[in-house]
Fold this protein.
Amino acid sequence: MNHAPGSPSPRTARERVAARRAARRRAPAPRQGCGPRILAAAAALSALLILALALALSWARGTLGAIEQADPRRPSAAAGQAAPTPPPALRDPLNVLLVGVDRRPDMQEGVRSDTLILVHIDPAQAWAGMLSIPRDSVAAIPHLGQQKINAAYAYGFHNAAELYGEGTAPEAAGGALAAQTVEGFLGVTVDYVAQIDFRGFQRVVDTLGGITVDVPRPLLDPAYPTDDYGYERLYIPAGLQVLDGATALRYARSRHSSSDFDRSRRQQLVLRAILAEVRARGLLSQAALLPALAGDLQQSVSTTLPLGDLDTLRGLADLAQRLEPDRIVQLSINPNDVAVSQEIGSDIYWDRGDVSALVARLLAGPEANAEVARVQVQNGAEVQGLAGRVTDALRAGGFLTVDAADALAPAAHSQLIDYGQHPQTLKRLADLLQIEPRYVFSEPPADAPPAPLRTDIVLILGADYREAWAGP
């Protein structure tokens, strides 16, 4: 970091962090014996603050509404109507695709999605989950076929009119095709898309005054790419750091010194740090920052979320204040959690069952995050299609499931068999299905069949199964 001549010598990172936190806590001591005039003045000041906040929110409603973008996936968008509104007061769970766009001034290398993160939000339960998708993952892109998933945004961007009709903005088409591709790849619905280019990300961090990141290990990148297609050396030491916008961006994007999977973890770490900074400032401080932040967002962000709606703004602000760090689930598609079916050059083909299991883990929330157990339903009831229907119902209920199968022999009684140590999941299943305790095994009995591949718990459907297990 450069310092002006004559300025004090730089303090350590931890000293800078401590100073930032102390400044936030510092407040004038209350005076004793306030008389009626002081109380009246305080009341007047409070009224002015409330009025200022109301005006700021009203102004923000119009300004942030300008970054709204029609969603070409919706039939109403083609007719020029507004995008559908979110759940009332953001009560129902929703999925938002975050797209980090790499767009350089001269467009020499075109435009591409450098970052894809699916965010699942449960406003009522005040938790959220992030699932990072490596850009080298191979997926079926509509109109294009099997390609790296980050090609979807570029193809939509450059073929907007052909894909979604005349008048469709390239950025909107890029986001729409990326969302469609992610929907097919993960098997979920993407309700909204939010795009930000990297200069916008940098400006937001600078407007916040930087972010505090506890860097777990040193980062050394001898060839970090610059905007003029050159390279520079990047070094960020381990430990607590206050990162400005440019450094935070480099930390999140660097990939020459580590894997793309480590890069995904760093990106999520930076996003958590931004949220922590916003929460630490409090609502009134956020209102004071609204003009600068809204200006940053207006230049570099577009989203299909209806931010022009005041209830949506209030709901998002309320959620940001209630969302505790331990209620944020951080996941990524990586070889430790998802098997690689095939790798051709830099193209990665992931095991579809493992991807589905990871998505189920995302949707299950923070309570289910501590224990990961894959469940297989086996049909011993001799009812065609029953195991598949029960599997779908369990998956919808937040369980991690693998493909259904037939049991080795017909069964008179339904059974649960834990082939590892997964007491939480075993109990959830037993309670949900109300299976008699004598048929719930915390370890395989002597006559149990061998454990299926990549399976932790087996549910054998017997003749006493209940139709309700297969869902409505």
